Amino acid sequence: MTIELHAIAAPVFTARLKALVHLLKIGESEGRARGLSEEAVLGARLAPDMFELKRQVQIATDHVKGAMARLAGLEAPSFPDNEQTFAELYARIDRTLAFVASVPAAAVNGREETIVTLKLRQETMELTAIDYLQGFAIPNFYFHLTTAYDILRHLGMPLGKRDFLWRQ
Amino acid sequence: MTIELHAIAAPVFTARLKALVHLLKIGESEGRARGLSEEAVLGARLAPDMFELKRQVQIATDHVKGAMARLAGLEAPSFPDNEQTFAELYARIDRTLAFVASVPAAAVNGREETIVTLKLRQETMELTAIDYLQGFAIPNFYFHLTTAYDILRHLGMPLGKRDFLWRQ
Question: According to the lineage, what is the superkingdom (chains A, B) (predicted)?
Answer without folding.
Answer: Bacteria
